[in-house]
Amino acid sequence: MEFLNPTALFGLLALPLLLIPYLIRRKPQRLPFSSLLLFIEAGEAASPKPWGRLNLPLIFFLQLLLLALLIFALSEPVFSIRPTNIAIVLDNSASMQALEDGKARFALAKERASAIVGELGAGGRVDLYVTTPTLEKMHAVALSPAEATGIIAAQMPYDLAEPPADYDQLLSQLARQQKYQRVYLITDHPAQGQSALARVVTVGQARGNFAITGFDVQRASLANPRLAAQVEVANYSERDEKLKILLKSDGGELAQRDIAVASGKRATVSFDGFAEHPTYEAELANRDALALDNRRFAVAPSARQLRILGITPRPRELASLKTIPGVQIDIIEPGDYDKAERAGYALEIFHFATPAALPRGAALFILPPQSSSLVDLGAPVTNAIVSNWREPHTLTRYINFNLFRPSYARPLKPQTAGDVVVDSSAGPLVFASERQGVRYLTLGFDPFPYLGRDNLPMSVFTLNLLDWFFDGRGGKRQATGEAIFLGKVQSGDQVILPGGKSLAITPGAGFFGGAFYQGIYQVQHGAERELIARNLLDHGESDLRAAAPIAIGAGSQGGASASVLWSFWPYLLLALLALLLVEWFLSPPMAAMKFWRASFRAAQR
Amino acid sequence: MLPSPFTPQFLTQLEILRLRTRKEFLGAHTGSYSSPRRGTSLEFADYRRYTPGDDLRYLDWGIYARTDKLYVKLFREEVDLFAYVFIDASASMGYPSREAKYLPATSIGLALSYVVLANHDHVKLHLLQESGGAKATQFYRGRRRMNDCVNFATGATPGGPLQLAAALGDHLKKMRRPGKAILISDFLMPPSAYQPGLNLLRAFNLDIAAIQILSRQEVDPRFPNGSLALVDSETQQEIKYQWNADAHRDYQSKLAHHNAELRSFCHQSGIHYSLYVTDRDLSEFVFATLPAIGLFK
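Predict the joint structure of the above. Result:
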């Protein structure tokens, strides 16, 4: 016998509450009588205690049986006829690697799957599916129970998040299309309801967990050869915790930090000024349920080259930027802009020039001669005094604004939404805006030529704005499951997986789609080696506190259920009605009401 | 104004009756009850030898003719009766209400008092209550005092507990003349309580009649089934009682046993005993039941 709605059985725990009305001594009806001479032997002295000896009448047991039957009926008991053609869907997402009393959830899931397969007769047929990266069958033809057990044992979970899916619909659709008598989904998500066709088997319980949710390694600034890293950690537990984060490279520890993270919160730690290494690993030293998300990987950022297209009638001033390491600038006349090949430039600087339309890439506008869609220009001012600036902000860091006095400036009149980063008494001098992820910066003064130490405030500002644009290019974090772009593949090229396994790449293959595990992937093109980091980026897999329940019911009713299940809860309801009738005769409600009314009146008297 | 049972017809019927006594008392005046003293009634008592000065009218000439000796016939003295009506006025007599138990009890007492008054005998009403001292009337004589009796008896309100022997003792302290004692009570007390009381009356050489008054609710209680907190009307003691058909049967059995024990004691002690359940017809009780136990001549 099985229960389609086993949650209702928790109602049995509430049954003892039925005792309460019988335990509480009802205030007896107080009646005066001429003499108690003839009652004293049989009666007992009245007690002021609100409880008394438990005196359970027949009606109590009837009510108990009635409630038990009701709860039993609500749990929808069914007699199950053993199915012979089933499918087992294994949740192989990252959260299945979480430990339950020292055993991984996925190992438990495999045990449950093997047990289900073991219950099949010798003639039973099994199909095995996994949920991640997509719901797919693991084999071509239907398996015998023995074959299925072998395949189940060989399965491993991926370091991937499971794709969002309506399992109620998905499983019932699978069952109908493939004519399965029952489909089992073995997962770490709790189930809400069961159906004859689809059964959710839950392994694991809600647990606290800590996770590294972000790990970025960057150069400290454009001109700085040292690196900086930021590690974001999350506390998915019910208590505040002090976490230890280690920064490693090539097996050696570079640095470590301790940070206190409140329950349900995230925090970020920074590691500054460490030397360049090929790969980096951030590790959370605290032990928790899921080890996978306690490690994050990163590779060293590529050498910083900022390719700039300068559009200016004064090329000598812009050319001074070439003295900045990592900056490569090509300068054209404003009139040549439309004809110029602009692809490959990270930044376009319009120096006393205005394009006809806003460029598609990042752009810096310096004293544009005409009004643009971004700003209008005000009247010129000399030696403008900065009155206000945004802080902290990449553009304003390290600048002493007491010394920052552009000799010629034109205040800006913003025409669009954006940030005034630097303001003067005459009006804004620096206006930053962003459209569809592209950064635009307009200056009401000319910071060029770049004079280095000879004009420190303006030079620092120039370096800041280049950093700002450099940051703005953004480096998209790459998650497990995303394809690795291979470029031009030649014979003998190979991909080395995080576990060390090498896979030859077929010439002509544009990308590698098997990056299902977290770690460093190596793509070898002949003698060249490219390192790529892949991390589990789905925070939902790390939060083991409350997995989203899988509701089963509406989509998977009917179908093959009748052939494998016999519901008898309607008969229980009939029995319940019969009991109600018996109770009615034993204790008519009207009589009970009369009695209570009389008691109430007596109490009032 | 006489209470409702005392219609002219009822009073007329009462006037026919005379209380019967099984003892001879020394009366105050000439009446219709035998006295242990010799007197001038028509009832022959004895002979004695003639002494000079005796009334020659009482010489028995027949004995003189046979024996040649003079004997004088002696006759019993007939005196009036002193009747004492004791009415239990404790709280239990007010259950279920004063009208349902106490007033019927007073009606019986008044009916018997009227019988005494109509025969030009003396009657004195006593209220048996623990509080307020021994309440009693003076001796009344003659029908015209009936209203006084009614006012006294019906003017009282039953209340308080009662120790029968002690209460009777208070009243008997002031008693000087023996006579007929009629005790009207529910006798819902243990034998150890009523027996000393009745024995006390016997010790005062009274001819006793005990009339037990019970209401229908006491004979056949109709409580709702279930748990009850019964409160004693006199002591205010409260007991918890599970009332059901079995309990009802048990109660009636105990009441029957209690009444039988009372009746047996009265029989053994030479006391007239009768039970009156207040929903019965008073006339039928007075004119049929009481004569049957020998209370009336």
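DSSP finds nine helices and eleven strands in chain B.
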